[in-house]
Amino acid sequence: MELLEKSFPDHEIELCMGFLSPGRFIPKALMSLPEQSRLDKMRSTDISCLSWISMVEDIRDLAPNVKITLWSNEDAPLIWGDIVRAIAALPSDNTLVDEFDLLLSLLDDSGKSKGLALIDQSLEQDEHLRDDLATVLEEHAKTELTTEELDLPDWSMEIVDAFAELYAQDMDRLESMPGVQVLKP
Fold first, then answer.
1. What's the distance, CA 7 to chain centroid?
2. Angstrom distance (rounded) from CA 54 to CA 129
3. Which of 107, 108, 135, 145 is the most exposed, having the fewest neighbouring CB atoms within 10 Å of its CB?
4. Nearest-angstrom CA–CA distance, 181 and 72
5. Which pLDDT value is given to residue 47?
6. Are 106 and 142 in contact (CB under 8 A)?
7. What is the pTM for the complete model shown?
8. HEC profile of the chain
9. CA torsion, ordered 156, 28, 73, 80, to nearest 10 deg
10. 54-97: per-residue pLDDT in tens?
11. Residue 43: φ, ψ to 5°
């Protein structure tokens, strides 16, 4: 980012990035490594202190004029339109065709019907639409599309939950950083 900022001094540089909870990201990253490399990395790294904060702080320090837009990947089905608008630099009130198709693709047939009915009822983005759609997603998600198996040995749901709590705190902290926009449902 620093190199981009220095290479294009007369241009506005933007970084748009979705984050994943470290409790889910770490096992995926580690399981992509050969076994010996994975074991070495696990022995030499204190994973309890990993967060996205330090990376964003480094970008802010090295490239202070870069505009940063972040979101939790877990929220993407509910905020897909906001993500597209942010990346395309569209006004926030710009309506997108099929804005909730990603969310609808994750629902069973009953959930799709309920989701479409809610979307059709809401001619404008009313303040409760996303809450209502979140409820439909929670009740009607196709588990094979929304649930991941984490295959890292000794990686428990307690670890995932602990990281999820820290991740939520980190996202709140990122939201208060100057030059950082966090998209939320």
1. 29
2. 34
3. 145
4. 12
5. 80
6. yes
7. 0.85
8. CHHHHHHCCCCCCEEEEEECCHHHHHHHHHHCCCHHHHHHHHHHCCHHHCCCHHHHHHHHHHCCCCEEEEEEHHHHHHHHHHHHHHHHCCCCCCCCCCCCHHHHHCECHHHHHHHHHHHHHCCCCCCCHHHHHHHHHHHHECHHHHCCCCCCCCCCHHHHHHHHHHHHHHHHHHHCCCCEEEECC
9. -130
10. 999 999 999 999 999 999 999 999 999 999 999 999 998 888 99
11. -75, -30
Reported confidence tier of residue 124, pLDDT bands at 50, 70, 90: low
Sign of CA dihedral 139, 142, 145, 151: positive
pLDDT on residue 123: 59
Which residue type does 35 have?
A: E
Among residues 166, 178, 185, which one has the least CA distance to residue 68? 178
